[in-house]
Amino acid sequence: MFHQRAAKVLCFVFITAIGITLVASQTVTCYTSSTTCTSTSVILTGTRTAGQCCLNRGGRSYKTGTSTTCTPCVVYGFFQFLNSTAPSTTVYQKEGSQLTGYLGFVNGTFSGTHFVTFTVPDNNRYIKSFTPGVLNNAATRLQFTLNIIQDNIALQPPLSVPVSALVDGSSEFVLPFSATILDADVVTIGFRESDYSVTEGASPPDQYARVKLAKDKTIAQPLSVQVVPLTVDQFRPLGIPLPDGITFADLTNPAQYIPNGPMDFNKTILNLTFTSSQREMNFNVAIVDDLINESDQQFICIVRLTNPSVIASGNVIIKNPSTVIRIDDNDPISIGFGADTYTFTKGQQIWYDTVKLIKDDGVVSEQTFTVTVIAQPNAVDNQAMYDKDYDIGPLSEQTFTITPDQQYVSIGVNIYDAGLTGTLQAKLVSTQVANTPSYSAPHNPTTILLILDNKVAIVGFVNRGAVVTEGGDFIECVAVTDPSPDLDMRLSFYIQVLLVPDTADASDVFTSDGPIILGPFDDTNRMYCFSTTALADEYFEGNQTFTYSLTLVGEQTRVVVSPNVTMVTILDNTTLTIGFDPIQYAVNESYFYVTFGVSILGGATIQGASVGVMFSTGDGTALAGQDYNQTAQLLTFKENTAYIPVAVGIINNGYYEDDIIFQANLALQSAGGYEQFVTLSPAMATATIIDDINGVTIGFDQTGYSFLENQRYARVSVRVLQGQLKKSVAVQFRTIRGSAVVDDGLAEDDESFSAQLLAVSPSGLVTIAPATTLITIIDTNSVIIGFEKQSYQISKHQNQGRLPVKIQVLQGTFGRTVLLHFKTRDGSAIASTNYISIDYALPAMNFSVHELTVNVSIIVNDLAEDDKVFSVELSLISPSSRVTIAPISAQVTIIDDSSVTIGFEHGNYKISKHQNQGRLPVKIQVLQGILGRTVLLHVKTRDGSAIASKNYISIDSDLPALNFSVHELTVDVSIVVNGLAEDDKVFSVELSLISPSSRVTIAPRSAQVTIIDDNAIYLVPTKATYVLRENQKQAMVCFVAAPVAALRVNVTVVAMEDDVPSARSPQHFIASSVRLTIPPYTPPQTELCVAFTIIDNKVALEPNKTFSIKVMPSPKVVLLRPISHVLIVDDDAVSVNFTSSNYTSVGSGYTAVCVSKDAATASNINVEITLTSANASCTSGDFSPVVYSTVLVAGPAGVPTCINVTNYLWEGRSSFRMSITKVTAAEGIVKVGAPSSASVSIFNAGCLENEDTFLCHYVFGTFLCQLKVYNQLCCRTCGVIC
Fold it and tell me: Are 318 and 243 in contact (CB under 8 A)?
């Protein structure tokens, strides 16, 4: 389209004194509104056809109506200057200036007069000044004016002011134009003060430096700045000026900021914003309280702009861009004891970890403090005595040094055991030797040493674990076991014995009414005993236990009760009998059941126990399942259970038969481990089932028959004896218990057997009677029954304690039933202790059973004891002349195969000399097996490197017996405690059996005891600092050692440079190490010295120098002051003298007067030379005295320094005398040598005697005096005064 393809104008930028003009390309539409042009209808030049638009590449074109000619249109624009050739679209103008512009013709064909009006929006930042006008060929530019107001408000954004014009009422052909107003106001910001001060630690936990920023103008928008804290080193390379009046030389102690390290301030960048009218702003810079005692410090804050556009505008000026923050240190050092009271235990050695001198609050110091600690008695009754109860070193006054890197220093306190004395007290007082302004009053300047008495009395039961049978007595004893009888026990107390019920209570024992009070226990009464009776009762209850406990009567902190309990076991010996009551029962076959009764018999009752008995039925003539129901039931007897009924069902089979029987049996199942005290008797009962059906009677013709055993047979007859049979009845004939009648050769009783008739098909109308007949066999043989052997032996652990004892038919043939009774009888072996007793009937012996085995149970244990013996016995229940028992008893020997090993608890013991008050408990124990017999032992000591009576107390004695209840013994071995430092010593303790036994082994037989010497030698230099002259050539450093030691100890003493070297090796001394030997038994306070070489370098005026003497750590040696110092005082002297006694100069008007020194020096010498007398040829008086000063610099001897002495007379001679009147140096010995005076003569051209007055008056008066060149040489006689 035509209006989008208009010509473009080049863009230029003009910088003027009042603003910036921007000339940019613009597009101006130039066509009639009734015509529509398209991009395809454009022609470039000349003529056009209908529907086409005109475009002239050189400028604007237009068309009119249907004309075919393209004619340029007139375009207007704004011009910056009257003579500008190109129009402007934008002009930039600063506040406080005037904008003048012109509207004029740009291109096209201009003709005629055109009316122009200007339009500018109202705003308080400028004043409009223009009027409507005309443009024509005579006036081609029309002026307009804007007066920009400077409003004193900074940071205003640029204001774009559109300026438009109407030419002939239309703006269509006027290029757009605007004026942009730029803010010309500059705001100044900066720190209000050049420096600020803050006191470190003034308002914990954080402190702030309160700093002010200021600005001088109102701003139109917020102004963001940053305040950056910097260290001096960070600030220095930035090139930012320091505040007025402050130089880097004033920043003597810069504050530190090291991440993860020392930090004196918080280096947090602060982002701050000034509001429009805000002139000042306060902010805080955080200060870190570093708890370091140090000099006042400084760091610097700078302010900077953060907005790039503001920085680029140049409208913000930073004045006073930096300020110094001064941190006043507020961390004074207060050194005192770490606690008000320190508690020790006698005999315990406390070295460097308990009593401390501490800097308060964790403050770190940059300087070294020296503190003196004095040990004093405390104002209490129990005062601790120095060197007897405690010490802090060889002397009661010790000096301690706390360096800057130390937060505390420990004080070595040695506590001695002076006996059972109660609690002791002492006092330590600290005073500071070198006071400094940063040292505040000490906190805790005193502390109390509380020395506790650690001895206690131990009292307890002598024997523990008593066992007593009901009805028996036992005795318990309570005794003091520590301290041992050879030590005093300076206290008295009572012990109360209380019975503590368990399964047994006070009703089971007899004691006195109320608690048992034992005592008083004191130094002479150390053991009391009391008796207790275990009451017998009729209760089957099992073994019971109760406990005796011990408690102190009243308050007594120095008594320990141990062992304080003992358990007593009461063995229950009550027997219990359970059996059938009654033992025979009868029941009609037509009834349904029979009830058996099982009861506790004999009067004893069950209490707290339980007994299980198995009830079971067994066939007799009645058969289970046919005549009765087989029954098995566990019967449990417990407390309040005395009778248990058991019902057995009866089977009514409806057959005709004889009365039949079955039996009920009891068997013991459980009794809680007390089965030996339970007896089942009677253990068997019978029940008869009565056939209650009537009928025909069939039976034997007689009820008994007798036959000799050698007859061939026995004849019996069966007949119907009563009634008649109306039907067939099958009758069965049988014999009971044998039917043979031949002679079997068996020795047996006259035997009988029965023949019995049984109805095979019983009928209620048939009765068999008599249904049986007795057949007796008369026997004449005999038999001998007895034990297989007369003695048995069994080891305790053999066959699991089971000994089979056989009973056999020893002679004859057994053909009858014999019932035997078997029982055991105590010998040295006791039933229930060594074996299980037996007392019961054996199963029957008969033809088929001709041997019985009884298992005798041995109680298996691991007790090592003597062999035990008991016997087993045999008897006939029913005596018979044809049965003999032989032998009737056999002896059983229980061979003890248990062994026991006894020995020391440890093979090696170690004890420090002062440990446990020199008491070493050595335990002797049963190490393997269980001791069931009494063993007597002997213990003795044997010397090694340790000698009896010197290092330990010898032992050679029998020990108390070891037995079942005493299986451990403790032997207290006493170590001789002394303060003598010596090597560790060794001796042994040996153990032996008084009565040797193969079942007792001693292993280990000996134990080695090592006495570890824990005494130390305290080594301390005789001086903290040795002051020596350089020419002594040798430094003797001496030490004292205490206490006396029994061994030779070598330590290494090293001469070395200090951390901050003062004296250097080998210039001033020879760094070396020397061995210092402490011979055995060196008396206390004996000085032991080593020598180090000092170098005399012949250099005078050196400062005093120090080097360190360090004692290297060594075993057995406690270094109370490991480092001392040697101060080398320079004693080399130097003399200053003139290099000549006469100095003469001719013609030059001056002469050089020189002085020199006779020795090399390390520092400068200030020399004062005085003109003491003068005589000029032109005067008759003296010169005024004159003083010259010069310096002989440090260096070698003989190097002179000179002064020029001038004669200011034009002519003549000056003659005077000069003397060295004063020589000084910073330190060292300096003096005046010879020659100390010299004469000086200076000859000029000559001295005219008649011109003295002229020369003196005019020369000195008019020239020299006025110039003040040398006013001291004015001649007095001339009257010239300068």
Answer: no
Q: What is the pLDDT of residue 99?
A: 87
- Reading the block at residue 297, the tokens are 């410090």
Per-residue pLDDT of 1118-1144, as tens digits, reads 877 788 888 888 888 899 999 998 888
Instruction: Give me the long-range contacts of 171-176 (CB less than 8 A, separation at least 24).
Output: 172/28, 172/29, 173/28, 173/30, 173/73, 173/74, 173/75, 173/76, 173/108, 174/75, 174/76, 174/77, 174/103, 175/26, 175/28, 175/75, 175/76, 175/77, 175/78, 175/87, 175/89, 175/106, 176/26, 176/89
> Of 901, 903, 899, which Cα lies nearest the Cα of 990?
903
Number of other CB atoms surrounding residue 886 within 10 Å: 11
CB 914 within 8 A of CB 860: no
> 23: which strand partners?
12
Q: Three-state secondary structure along 259-327?
A: CCCCECECCCCEEEEECCCCCEEEEEEEECCCCEECCCEEEEEEEEECCHHHHHHCCEEECCCEEEEEE
- Hey, what's the torsion of the CAs at 977, 981, 986, 988, to 10 degrees? -10
State the Cα–Cα distance between residues 455 and 460, nearest whole angstrom: 16
Model pLDDT for residues 1198-1233, shown as the tens digit of each residue: 889 888 776 544 444 667 788 998 999 888 889 999
CA-based nearest residue to 225, from 210, 209, 208, 213: 213
Burial (CB count within 10 angstroms: exposed 0-12, middle 13-18, buried 19+), residue 287: buried
Two tokens, residue 999: 């079942």
Residue 507 amino acid letter: S
Q: Are 937 and 994 in contact (CB under 8 A)?
A: yes
Beta-bridge partners for 364: 292
Give residue-wise pLDDT tens across range 697-721: 788 888 888 777 666 677 888 887 7
Give the phi and the psi of residue 1221 in degrees, each rounded to 5. Answer: -100, -20
Apex 287 CA angle, 284 and 290, nearest 5? 170
Beta bridge partners of 1215: 1175, 1241
> Residue 474, exposed/middle/buried by CB under 10 A (0-12, 13-18, 19+)?
middle
**Closest of 196, 6, 179 to residue 80, by C-alpha:** 179
| Longest Cα–Cα distance in the chain | 220
| DSSP secondary structure code for residue 859 in this structure | P
Prediction pTM value: 0.34
Q: Using CA atoms, how far apart are residues 1023 and 36, in angstroms rounded to an integer?
A: 119
